[in-house]
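Standup notes, structure subgroup. Blocker cleared on the 5,10-methenyl-6,7,8-trihydrofolic acid input:
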Amino acid sequence: MSTTFQLDSATSRANPTPAPMRRLTVPAIRDRKQDGKTEEPVVMLTAYTARQAQLLDPHCDVLLVGDSLGQVIYGLPSTIPVTLEMMANHAAAVVRGSYHSVVVVDMPFGSYEQSPEQAFDSAARLLKESGAAAVKLEGGEAMAETVSFLVNRGIPVMGHVGLTPQAVNVLGGYRARGRSDAEAEKIVADAVALEQAGAFVVVVEGVVEPIAIEVTETVSCVVIGIGASAKCDGQVLVTDDMLGMFERVPRFVKRYADMAELVSDTAAKYAEEVRARTFPGPEQTYQPKR
Ligand SMILES: Nc1nc(=O)c2c([nH]1)NC[C@@H]1CN(c3ccc(C(=O)N[C@@H](CCC(=O)O)C(=O)O)cc3)CN21
Ligand SMILES: CC(C)C(=O)C(=O)O
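Run returned:
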């Protein structure tokens, strides 16, 4: 049997990928920043389902299976109740639906904070059950030891500082961060700690622009912004927010489409036709052979 094909773990060993291709890798993302500069910004979007992944994959470098799925898919009030099982299942769907982007999966609240060992167990389970290439976790200095523990044992880690939604109960809401000098210094120190611990990307969320720029210029690894600055090394948004699926979104979201209106208008047309008995029509109806 040829060993030149990349075998997809989700398919049979006798069924190699038809067109030999290679998914982007974590080192390829890391290498996008050279000597403190990123020529081509890193494009990241969230994905939670296989079909969503199929549609986004050709346009992205990284697909993030974010724990925002708690709010977006499950209607939960925050990301706090999200479980490892939910993350593993959605990440597996996203891996099945993509072949180009690096798939990164969020570690949910409570699955990694206790100890590096707990984090390794959780991260290993996520990668084993999904085929994703890396994990993301929230926190800076407090998580540095955990980040290096994971990286040294073969698990690439994306960090996340600034507005960290899993800390909503400590922060008291989802307000932008870095307005006071102390807060600003802490955000930079957190990003530096993650970089030194070996994180390949740091996500900076919901911070005043000068701090986002300072972080981007200070750390050598790729800095991906959300509610941060166009000067970051890359950007991420929650796909459903960008598509206009939600009526209330953070100020940092740009709605590139109005999918909510499209879905609602389409459901209205369907409902009208059902009530008028004009759907199904002849083309959607089976007739016996005669
Ligand atoms: N759909 C969605 N999009 C997100 O960006 C997102 C999630 N869900 N879930 C997890 C976290 C939570 N995030 C949020 C949620 C709300 C605001 C927000 O409404 N911010 C207000 C200010 C809030 C305040 O002043 O208290 C804003 O106007 O931007 C920001 C980030 C970001 N993440
Ligand atoms: C918004 C991004 C960065 C995220 O963490 C999520 O989707 O959960």
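Discussed briefly. Confidence is low (pLDDT under 50) at residues 1-8.
Next: hand off to the docking folks.
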